[in-house]
Amino acid sequence: MSFTRYIAPCVALMMLAMPTSAKNLSDTQQAQLDEIVSLLEDNPKLIANLNQSLQKFVEQQQTFKQNLAKRRDWFESKTHSWIGAENPTVTVVNFMDYNCPYCKKLEDELQKLVAAHDDVKVINIAVPLKQQTIDELGTNSAVYAMNVWLEQPEAFAQVHELLMKKRGMHDARSLEKIAKKTKTEQWLKMPEETGKAVADNYRAFVELGLRGTPAMIIGDQVAPGYLPYPQLEAMVEAAKAEG
Length: 243
Prior knowledge:
5-stranded mixed β-sheet, alpha+beta, 5 strands, single chain
């Protein structure tokens, strides 16, 4: 049996795994694909595992796209805070945690992004992965922030900024200090509806196969983890080009 009959299914799967726009390969991509083919020619025992892995990857991508389509309208829920354009060309959906150091680092880049692009919107979806409850308060930073966003929106920007500036994990003292400074003490509680909304944030996080925060969805692409501004802007520009 010729090697071509071995390699063809793998290459076909690789092409299926690429976004539609990537099927017209650039010179660099073609060179990389040629290198992969050459590697497999020299190591044919890799083909079976590669075939299985690529099929699994394609299945995961299909599931992601289906779940993403189901959540598109939900991203615009009133429970999620946002900054930037009201009617954007590109929306960045940012799953974040107020206790995540890389989310705090990314915040500056997102602020820079909407300042430089008046057609970009950033939606923040708070997921309290690191801390579900502060025992002394019976709440967490995500629920507190959502309460302020919904009930006292004029104070939200300052609350959000202070939550993001705090190094390390939040505790009862840090939340109470922020609440006192911003006159939002009454929202240091966990109403049933807000608690359910934050729990739904976590369900969406799991459904979309996300592993940690920050995790951004830009167009149909996922950017896991922190991205420096040049890479973040490049992904946004690519999403604009795709329309």
